[in-house]
Specification:
CATH topology of one domain: Rossmann fold
CATH architecture of one domain: 3-Layer(aba) Sandwich
Strand content: 15-25%
Helix content: 25-40%
CATH superfamily of one domain: P-loop containing nucleotide triphosphate hydrolases
Order of helices and strands: EHEEEEHHEHHEHEHEHEHH
Strand order of the largest sheet: 2-7-1-8-9-10
Structural class: alpha/beta
Distance between the termini: 10 Å
Number of helices: 10
Mean pLDDT: 94
Number of strands: 10
Radius of gyration: 17 Å
Shape: globular
Length: 237
């Protein structure tokens, strides 16, 4: 089994956008790809009759892109209505999120696909409960990590700190993606060059701002060759 953990330098840097593109790029290699959104906030009531519950738009997009059908509760075990930090939203409804629940769900998904793309929430150290963060989940899964860098003011510090923390936890930073999240950003080329010189990980792609981009168009800007070499998988990959 194999997986990739997608994290970001912050919230709203386009993790889902890039995760969908990575999924499409891997599917173009002939692989069966599944996805997981372990924790989400900002959810709305949805689902089919008899299966109503809170649904997260990012998780639904990941589900639609997946090669296999995964029950929503497995794909997104913890979903909360307020668009706030997930652990705070969980506290408000008396829920304690547990890493074992997330690991078990991921194992179920892994058994049905060649590669599972796990998208985190917010940045690298977003809390899950009083003691653990999403970084602890990444360590528990032991997947190589892809860092989505939202190219904007402050991204150099955020990206370098995230990369240092990822490696400090003993994980492989398999690559990073420069996601141009705004047409108003300045010194975009200079920032990407600075990160290319310092991150010591492959640049998987530079994704230009495109408000209409779908997964296939995003995939066209990504090269997953080096990423596949980092994935802990069977020899068929």
């Amino acid at each position: 089994m194999a997986g990739i953990f997608v994290t970001g330098t912050d919230t709203d840097v386009g993790k889902t956008h890039i995760a969908l593109g990575l999924m499409a790029a891997l599917q173009q290699r002939g692989l069966r790809i599944a996805a997981m959104k372990p924790v989400s906030a900002g959810c709305e009531l949805g689902g089919s009759e008899g299966d109503r519950g809170l649904r997260n738009d990012d998780a639904l997009q990941l589900s639609a892109q997946s090669s296999v059908s995964i029950p929503y509760q497995t794909l997104n075990p913890y979903a909360f209505e307020p668009a706030i930090a997930p652990h705070i939203a969980a506290q408000a409804v008396g829920v304690t999120m547990q890493l074992d629940v997330l690991r078990h769900a991921c194992t179920e998904i892994e058994s049905q696909a060649d590669v599972v793309v796990v998208e985190g929430a917010g940045g690298w150290l977003v809390p899950v409960n009083a003691r653990e963060t999403l970084a602890d989940l990444a360590v528990a899964l032991d997947f190589p990590v892809v860092l989505v860098v939202g190219v904007r003011l402050g991204c150099l510090n955020h990206a370098l700190l995230s990369a240092e923390c990822i490696r400090a936890r003993g994980l492989v930073l398999a690559g990073w993606v420069a996601n141009e999240i705004s047409t108003q950003a300045v010194c975009v080329d200079e920032n990407i060059t600075a990160l290319s010189q310092r991150l010591q990980a492959p640049l998987l792609g530079r994704v230009p701002f495109d408000g209409q981009a779908d997964a296939a168009r995003t995939a066209a800007n990504l090269d997953v060759t080096s990423l596949l070499a980092s994935v802990s998988a069977d020899e068929s990959l």
